[in-house]
């Protein structure tokens, strides 16, 4: 079992914090990334997408994952499970210290993440206009 924490950083100017619209554990926020097969090293052509709200039952055993995908090349099944409750907004303090904020923890089995793609709705809080910035 390999857990990967998605970490973000950004250059802030007049922004106090940055996080997905509904917070790091926003159930409807989609994370996009490519996956690399742990057996043959094949990287998926398209980005795949996981959302906390969107689970699929595991083929074997009990429980659910957020993604089950078979490698097109070697046929190996892999799963990705999101582990909420570990993320923090990226704050100006972290940004100024060139530090990263943890966003979401992912449990990759059979696959490795190969680059996250940022899209979706983000909320940025302005230092000077708290609550008024879109
Ligand atoms: Zn493969």
Task: Explain what this protein looks like in three dimensions.
The chain has 134 residues and is mainly beta. The chain has one domain. It is built from one helix and twelve strands, in the order E-E-E-E-E-E-E-E-E-H-E-E-E. It has a four-stranded antiparallel sheet, with no helix packed on it. Strands 9-2-12 form a three-stranded antiparallel sheet. It has a three-stranded antiparallel sheet with strand order 4-3-11, with no helix packed on it. The protein starts with a strand and ends in an 8-residue tail after the last strand. The C terminus is likely disordered. The site of zinc ion has 8 residues, from loops.
How do the strands and helices of this protein lay out in sequence?
Elements: E1 2-8, E2 15-20, E3 30-37, E4 48-51, E5 56-57, E6 64-65, E7 67-70, E8 77-83, E9 90-91, H1 92-96, E10 101-109, E11 111-117, E12 122-126
Antiparallel strand pairs: 1-10, 2-9, 2-12, 3-4, 3-11, 5-6, 7-8, 8-10
Bound molecules: zinc ion.
Give the topology string: H per helix, E per strand: EEEEEEEEEHEEE
- Poorly predicted sequence stretches spanning 5 or more consecutive residues: 129-134
- Structural category is mainly beta
| Rg over CA atoms | 16 Å
Described by the principal axes of the CA atoms, the overall outline is elongated
Count of all domains:
1
DSSP E strands, number: 12
Number of helices: 1
Question: Average pLDDT across residues?
Answer: 86
What oligomeric arrangement do these chains adopt? single chain
Strand content: over 45%
Physical arrangement of strands within the biggest beta sheet: 1-10-8-7
Hetero compounds: zinc ion
User: Helicity range of the residues?
Assistant: under 10%
Please outline the major beta sheet: 4 strands, antiparallel
Protein name: UPF0587 protein C1orf123 homolog isoform X2
InterPro entries: CXXC_Zn-binding_euk
Keywords: Metal-binding, Zinc
GO molecular function, one term: zinc ion binding
């Amino acid at each position: 079992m390999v857990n990967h924490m998605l970490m973000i950083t950004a250059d802030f100017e007049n922004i106090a914090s940055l996080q997905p619209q509904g917070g790091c554990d926003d159930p409807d926020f989609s994370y996009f990334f490519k996956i690399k097969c742990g057996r043959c090293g094949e990287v998926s052509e398209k980005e795949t997408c996981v959302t906390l709200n969107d689970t699929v039952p595991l083929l074997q055993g009990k429980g659910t994952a957020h993604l089950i995908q078979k490698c097109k090349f070697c046929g190996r099944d892999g799963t990705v499970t999101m582990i909420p409750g570990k993320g923090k907004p990226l704050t100006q303090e972290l940004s100024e210290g060139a530090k990263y904020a943890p966003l979401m923890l992912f449990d990759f089995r059979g696959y490795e993440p190969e680059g996250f793609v940022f899209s979706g709705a983000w909320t940025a809080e302005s230092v000077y206009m708290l609550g008024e910035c879109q």
